[in-house]
Amino acid sequence: MEWPTEPLAYVTWFTNFTSPESDTGMYRVQPSKDSKYQDRAAIVYLTDIRQSCMLTPSRANWDPSWTTNNILDRCESFFVNNMQSKYSYQTIY
Length: 93
Fold this sequence. Notes:
Layout (H helix, E strand, L loop, with lengths): L7 E5 L14 E3 L11 E5 L9 E3 L13 H4 L3 E3 L5 H7 L1
Antiparallel strand pairs: 1-3, 2-5, 4-5
């Protein structure tokens, strides 16, 4: 087996977009789970990634135990921030 020579990235998959929320205009996503309720993830070539996106918890009440280190594990749904930049607005919205 040969090891890849290109840079790799670990990607956690989220659910597909449906329609934007009427209040925010943002799409809501949740971590995609497999049949054992584990997060779906993959290792991909860095060159296959076209764009990153900013996720914001989609809850009105924030849990005080959330930190930058655990938010992706503890929060159940997120908004995709399509207002992060002009490029993200044009490509996500």
